[in-house]
Write a structure and sequence with these properties.
By secondary structure, this protein is α/β, with parallel strands linked by helices. It folds into two domains: about 80 residues, Nucleotidyltransferase, domain 5 (2-Layer Sandwich); about 120 residues, Nucleotidyltransferase, domain 5, CATH 3.30.420. The strands form two sheets. Strands 3-2-1-4-5 form a five-stranded mixed beta sheet, with helices on both faces. Strands 8-7-6-9-10 form a five-stranded mixed beta sheet, with helices on both faces. Helix 1 packs across helix 2. The longest helix is centred in the last third of the chain and has 31 residues.
């Protein structure tokens, strides 16, 4: 079985694959202060009972990647290890100014999106610590995208900077017109971010139409831990793939 490890700024997502099928997944907090031994203890408690024959890893946190690399070399030296970094064979051409700037998670998301939705272009909207919109050409090329502050970051900043406002539970309010402070914050956050995504997606689609006039189909795919907040509210998101990054890690591991 393959263990995939997606290390994000806030959470780390682990997945177990038996062939192409994901049989189990976990979401744990990311702490850059954790040592390789502490990480191993946590992971071993989760994967007990599974026979791991391969690891596929990507990270947006350099300190955590260093410790994960040490953990893999120490405790998983008997299995094939794939770490997505510059030089790793992904099959995703990066048509950007500086390919080394692109986060590994954005690359594997692009691979998974083009594999799952091969006809036409694709836009991946990853709702995490930041909200990433990644654009993939009909040929599976990474064209670039847009980055915006994430939902929780924005809520935290507003609560910290506004004396009479506070953090609220992120759920859909009764109406867009909030009848109290909590509902007003929920409305501005959830409907506001849905509108931001829709605006960016529509502008990206206009540019894709100019770049690929013969291709009409554009798949808009939501992923990330906060994606469920805007599902059914966003007017442009068509698909929800919560395990998109894990699937991409499996695909990269197979290519290597």
């Amino acid at each position: 079985m393959l263990l995939t490890i997606d290390i994000g700024n806030t959470n780390t997502v682990l997945g177990i694959f038996d062939g192409e099928k994901m049989v189990q997944s976990w979401r744990v907090k990311t702490d850059p202060r954790d040592t390789s031994d502490e990480i191993n203890l946590q992971y071993q408690s989760l994967i007990a009972g599974f026979t791991i024959k391969g690891l596929s890893i990507c990270s947006t946190v350099p300190a955590s990647l260093r410790e994960i690399r040490a953990m893999a070399e120490k405790y998983f030296s008997h299995v094939k290890i794939t770490i997505v970094e510059p030089g790793t064979k992904t099959g995703v051409p990066l048509l950007v100014d500086n390919p080394r700037e692109i986060g590994a998670d954005r690359i594997v998301n692009s691979l998974a999106a083009h594999t799952l939705y091969p006809s036409g272009s694709a836009i991946v909207v990853d709702f995490g610590t930041s909200t990433n919109l990644d654009v993939i050409s009909p040929k599976g090329e990474f064209l670039g995208g847009a980055l915006a502050p994430g939902i929780e970051i924005s809520v935290d900043a507003l609560a910290a900077r506004a004396a009479q406002l506070r953090k609220v539970e992120l759920i859909k309010p009764r109406s867009v017109i909030g009848k109290n402070t909590v509902e007003a914050l929920q409305s501005g956050t959830i409907y506001g971010f849905a509108g931001q995504v829709d605006g960016l997606v529509n502008r990206i689609m206009d540019e894709l139409e100019d770049l690929y006039p013969d291709t009409d189909e554009v798949s808009v795919i939501a992923t990330g831990g906060l994606a469920p907040l805007v599902l059914g509210i966003s007017e442009t998101i068509e698909f929800h793939e919560p395990d998109l990054t894990s699937i991409g890690l499996r695909l990269v591991h197979e290519r290597n």
